[in-house]
């Protein structure tokens, strides 16, 4: 319990500092103080502090939506990863690895290519439905009353991702130039094109899933005992599983629709938090959200700084950081997996 | 030193512990005397074409340890699972505390009926007290009371010293006691006789741990009016710790009663196809089977 006293303020401070850096760093250099003032102006809707108009414009229309989108998506992916690991009772579950992100990307791709005039909300809805269906398929394939098989989980993830990849390939072949650009962007994951309506949608989704996840944290702990044991504790297991799967599909679906496939946040962040505070979901979920948001913002700062003035897709940066972590995790667990 | 203290405290369980949290349940249950807690009426279970349970009728009373015995495939575990709604009945009815099982709200039933699993593994490294805290799930209790209750149950199973240990690092016996503390926590607010179902609780334990778990089960039944139903394979343990033996064979009850009546050489030979040497322990007057 000792560590929790400093952990919360540390993580919240890190989140605030990272947000400030994320708003400040870019081709147009803006000092953190100016960024802070500009954010105050934006939040109040008045000119409380003096900021050059072009800097205020950049912050209002580019940096702030980008930062807030990274925050919302990072927090959603990390929480969904933690919930999926609990739901599957398996530390290797992650929206990216088990193919849910690919499924959601296929849903989004179907919409953008076949219904180009459908609008962003149709894309988000389609990504959500496809994410939900994919999660249910993977869950059905891998789950048994005693838990989920790691091998089956990863193999079904591979199969689902391959199927979704094939579907995206077909759609890429059919797509026009505009759709092709968007499709490519999704597959690599990027926060560069952040728009306010996605920010609002993502923040709303984050608020809903965080509230509901927090509400289910105690039940999710009980579920880790096993489904039978959870039922004996009076838990409506089927209702809980369905609720969590739908919430994960909402989170991942909207994250994918807004930013494309950003891997490893959902896998790495819950593990990092578990190492510090243990597996209790009442702490794991909110702390994962904070750390996930901070890490995705740092990755996004890296994505726009490493090859400046050009940009790397943020999905590449998280993969570069997350893949080695995943390999270490596999090596540590290989005795259990064979 | 710590371990010795733990063992001493464990031995005191029969006489001194198990008081505060279950006193309410005990006093209410004492008033109900020997009322039937679980009523099994004409219960049959078919799985595919196979009849696993055939027209079982049993009334199970509080304040007793009832052991379900029989060879593999006799239907003991199925009967236990049907008591906790893990198996659907093909016909018949089970009532718990006077109310048909199907009419119970799951979360209300969880306050009165708990199941100790054979093995409980956890994917993530929860601390011992966090596992016991999971037993608080169905209870309406403040956080402070919850912590006190968890401490109390850990003391009861002599695991207070291991409160902050990681569950996966415990021995099989210690894990089983943690699970026992969890289910006792779950039953802390039982309004009438708490019901404890144990499915082969000693299968993964060494000899001393086996006796400790069964001693605790016996103490809960005799001293605190719990209704304990346990599936066992060891006939001597069943004779020693159970007040009533129910012997099953091919889904039917073939013998039912106190140990010396229910477990005769003829029954053992008929059900287990084994000719035993059966003597009566002059001290306890209980059958000893070799």
Automatic annotation (TrEMBL), chain A:
Ranges annotated as spanning the membrane: 6-30, 96-115, 122-142, 148-175, 196-213, 244-272, 284-306, 312-331
SUPFAM superfamilies: ABC transporter involved in vitamin B12 uptake, BtuC
Chief place of localization: membrane
Membrane topology per record: Multi-pass membrane protein
Protein localization: Cell membrane
Key words, A-Z: Cell membrane, Membrane, Transmembrane, Transmembrane helix, Transport
Gene3D superfamilies linked to this entry: ABC transporter involved in vitamin B12 uptake, BtuC (1.10.3470.10)
Origin superkingdom: Bacteria
PANTHER family xrefs: ABC TRANSPORTER PERMEASE PROTEIN MJ0876-RELATED (PTHR30472:SF25), FERRIC ENTEROBACTIN TRANSPORT SYSTEM PERMEASE PROTEIN (PTHR30472)
Family indicated by similarity: Belongs to the binding-protein-dependent transport system permease family. FecCD subfamily.
Annotated protein name in UniProt: Iron ABC transporter permease
Organism (species): Shewanella subflava
């Amino acid at each position: 319990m000792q560590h929790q006293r400093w952990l919360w303020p540390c993580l919240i401070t890190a989140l605030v500092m990272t947000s400030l850096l994320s708003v400040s760093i870019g081709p147009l250099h803006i000092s953190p103080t100016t960024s802070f003032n500009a954010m105050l102006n934006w939040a109040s809707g008045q000119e409380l502090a003096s900021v050059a108009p072009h800097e205020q414009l950049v912050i209002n229309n580019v940096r702030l939506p980008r930062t807030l989108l990274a925050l919302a998506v990072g927090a959603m992916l990390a929480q969904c990863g933690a919930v999926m690991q609990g739901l599957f009772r398996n530390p290797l579950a992650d929206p990216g690895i088990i193919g849910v992100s690919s499924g959601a990307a296929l849903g989004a791709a179907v919409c953008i290519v076949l219904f180009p005039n459908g609008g962003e909300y149709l894309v988000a809805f389609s990504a959500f439905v496809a994410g939900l269906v994919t999660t249910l398929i993977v869950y059905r394939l891998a789950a048994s009353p005693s838990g989920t098989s790691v091998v089956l989980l990863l193999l079904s993830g591979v199969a689902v991702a391959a199927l979704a990849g094939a579907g995206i390939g077909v759609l890429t072949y059919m797509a026009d130039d505009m759709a092709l650009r968007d499709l490519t962007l999704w597959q690599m994951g990027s926060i560069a094109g952040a728009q306010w309506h996605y920010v609002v949608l993502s923040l709303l989704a984050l608020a809903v899933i965080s509230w509901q996840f927090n509400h289910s944290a105690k039940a999710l702990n009980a579920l880790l005992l096993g489904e039978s044991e959870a039922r004996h504790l009076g838990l409506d297991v089927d209702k809980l599983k369905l609720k969590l799967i739908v919430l994960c599909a909402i989170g991942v679906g909207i994250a994918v629709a807004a930013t494309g496939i950003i891997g490893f946040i959902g896998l790495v962040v819950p593990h990092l938090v578990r190492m510090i505070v243990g597996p209790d979901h009442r702490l794991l979920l909110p702390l994962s959200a904070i750390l996930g948001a901070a890490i995705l913002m740092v990755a996004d700062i890296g994505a726009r700084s490493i090859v400046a003035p050009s940009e790397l897709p943020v999905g590449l940066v998280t993969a570069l950081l997350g893949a080695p972590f995943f390999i270490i995790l596999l090596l540590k667990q290989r005795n259990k997996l064979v | 030193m710590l371990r010795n203290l733990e063992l001493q405290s464990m031995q005191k369980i029969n006489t001194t512990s198990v008081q505060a949290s279950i006193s309410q349940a005990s006093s209410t249950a004492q008033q109900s005397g020997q009322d039937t807690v679980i009523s099994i009426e004409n219960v049959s279970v078919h799985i595919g074409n196979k009849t696993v349970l055939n027209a079982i009728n049993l009334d199970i009373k509080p304040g007793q340890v009832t052991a379900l015995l029989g060879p593999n495939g006799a239907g003991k575990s199925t009967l236990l699972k049907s008591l906790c709604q893990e198996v659907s009945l093909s016909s018949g009815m089970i009532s718990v505390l006077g109310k048909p099982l199907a009419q119970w709200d799951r979360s209300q039933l969880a306050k009165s009926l708990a199941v100790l699993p054979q093995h409980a593994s956890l994917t993530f490294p929860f601390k011992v007290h966090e596992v016991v805290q999971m037993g608080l799930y169905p209870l309406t209790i403040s956080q402070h009371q919850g912590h006190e209750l968890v401490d109390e149950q850990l003391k009861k199973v002599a695991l207070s010293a291991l409160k902050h240990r990681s569950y996966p690092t415990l021995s099989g016996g210690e894990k089983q006691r943690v699970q026992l503390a969890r289910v006792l926590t779950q039953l802390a607010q039982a309004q009438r006789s708490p019901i404890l179902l144990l499915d082969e609780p000693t299968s993964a334990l060494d000899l001393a741990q086996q006796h400790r778990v069964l001693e605790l089960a016996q103490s809960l039944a005799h001293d605190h009016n719990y209704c304990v139903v346990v599936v066992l394979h060891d006939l001597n343990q069943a004779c020693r710790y159970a007040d009533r033996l129910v012997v099953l064979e091919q889904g039917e009850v073939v013998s039912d009663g106190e140990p010396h009546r229910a477990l005769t050489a003829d029954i053992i030979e008929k059900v287990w196809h084994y000719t035993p040497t059966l003597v009566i322990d002059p001290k306890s007057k209980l059958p000893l089977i070799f």
